[in-house]
Amino acid sequence: MEKFIAIKGLVVPLDRANVDTDAIIPKQFLKSIKRSGFGQHLFDEWRYLDHGEPGMDASKRQLNADFILNKPRYQGSQVLLARANFGCGSSREHAPWSLQDYGFRVIIAPSFADIFYNNCFKIGLLPVVLDAAIVEQLFGEVGALEGYQLAVDLESQTITSAKGEVFSFDVDAFRKHSLLNGLDEIGLTLRHSDKIKRYEESRRIAQPWLFT
Amino acid sequence: METLYDKLWQQHVVHTESDDSDSMALLYIDRHLVHEVTSPQAFESLKMAGRKPWRVDSILAVADHNVPTTDRSQGITDPVSRLQVDTLDQNCDEFGITEFKMNDQRQGIVHVIGPEQGATLPGMTVVCGDSHTSTHGALACLAFGIGTSEVEHVLATQCLMMKKAKSLQILVDGTLGLGVTAKDVALAIIGKIGTAGGTGYAIEFAGSAIRGLSMEGRMTLCNMAIEAGARAGLIAVDDVTIEYIKDRPLAPKGAHWDRAVTYWRSLKSDFDVIFDQVVTLPAVEIKPQVTWGTSPEMVTAIDGTVPDPAQIDDAGKRHDIERALAYMGLSANMPINKIYLDKVFIGSCTNSRIEDLRAAADVIKGKQVAATIKLAIVVPGSGLVKVQAEQEGLDKIFQTAGFEWREPGCSMCLAMNDDRLASGERCASTSNRNFEGRQGPGGRTHLVSPAMAAAAAIAGHFVDVRNL
User: Fold this and answer.
1) C-alpha to C-alpha distance for A135 and A150, rounded to whole angstroms
2) ipTM
3) Between chains, do A17 and B129 touch, taking CB under 8 Å as contact?
4) Residues 158-187, chain A, touching B (beta carbon < 8 A)
5) H or E element: which one contains B26?
6) Among A12, A73, B199, B201, which residue is least crowded by beta carbons within 10 Å?
7) CB neighbours of A165 closer than 8 A, spacing ≥ 6?
8) Tens-place pLDDT, residues B206-245
9) Any alpha helices (H) in B49-181, and if so which ranges?
10) Structure pTM?
11) Would you call A195 and B51 a contact, using CB atoms and an 8 Å cutoff?
């Protein structure tokens, strides 16, 4: 998994609640058996005027100039500022893959859907929950200042605004440790192999019908 | 005092990261369901790391999203879809994983075949790289959707690192009115608490109206727990659960059956346990539901109207409604029963079980699909559901009325195969998501119960099934 320690990056505001995983990455792109290449299809139906299919050359497609990600001032953004319940819908990890592949490292929202939130940590994309009032304030600041950046520091669990204001955020200790060190979670779990085997044996005795 | 969720959680903890009750725990996974869309990258990474599945007999695989619902004798024509299904076949063959291949009669939607086979049982932890895994909670197992990294994690370790959710009890007491189904209960709940209302919670559905539901109805309800934001939905074990499981192919037999039933009967929340949150919804208040927008929470009763954004004070909500109405091609204050449809889809992991097909067939028997409906299809949830429906003569009822009778799969719920809406087309759908583009780019989805979809197919527009 990709490490995450700290970044300072350009912010793009996506002013829309309940952004679902079908919008983040439409179903036709889920047919891929690869883990990469999803960034060009991130928000495909909003980002392009033509209909996207797998294998299309993105450079030849017609961009929707009104969509926020296509505005020149937001090119190269690493921080996505979003609204409540971001990532609702399916469990497709293709959604965080496409955000990461596009170049995002952090997503800030007042709330996230559970599975999406969880999936982000597995690949080194940092979802940050901030109070709705703070998110509202940041939307105002981003819109008002071209080139607006936020500094995100996982170690200190803080976000520092362009004005120098500091906001703290919560993150689970285990997830933080894994992210800071880019740890292989499967490797971590396999350190408990003996415990898993002992559990499995006791379960086999207590509920043998689960092992047939 | 423990909730059903507490009991299921506690039973499966292998290890905790610290003594803090809020700390991550390593949970043992009893059943791993696998489909073709979210597994190829997991198998690839597993192999690249030189690892193998920890317990092959815990896995049941099936291709459901990409499979055609028309004639399958020529295989899958779309090469990209075909490769994904072939990849699942190869991975399962390589590791000796049980898979119901496309032409196996037991093939079907993963959330239909799990309970149907007895592969999901009370007391289990059940995962699948699919958010509608919550369906299986109807059998009092802890079932939830996971991402591809977690699919790999479960393959490699039989465990998942998890954070415990809070508990939400949704109480539906009383008797549902005639023509009001589990789907209407699910949509009414989502209308009440919103699509994020259950975020961070495991929902337990309880109350006399829930106990009065069949297993099929309970699966419909738990299926849509994720649409209320909850990763898991749960319903306690009772006689209905036990009766449903008995004699399923993978259900315990003989002495094991008796032992299992004794244990399963303990799978309910303790009397007087305090939930973190409780929501009540009297059954008598629930009417047949129809969604009008682009989120399942944008829903109203059949005798209602499309909302008027001008009447909404909150600017954000007003903006969301305006955007949804523009996408859906609807105007404010329009009566729901004046919404005319182009297509009707009866199917999906929400509503493709035998009871769903019977309910739809009941409504259309002896009638004809309206001339204005371009396509009406029934996609059974599994090959076995299809066979049973055919034995009951339901296929003839559907076909005589003008419905197409298809092969099992996810089909037009998410349109990964050829079944989809064209831009601007409007569909009455028994599926679970009405997101923009869900059933095809530009397609407009109205979520309803099977009986309501059937009634709409006959009338050409939404009608109140209670008046038929």
Assistant:
1) 12
2) 0.97
3) no
4) 172-175, 185-186
5) strand B25-28
6) A73
7) none
8) 999 999 999 999 999 999 999 999 999 999 999 999 999 9
9) 79-95, 110-117, 148-157
10) 0.97
11) no
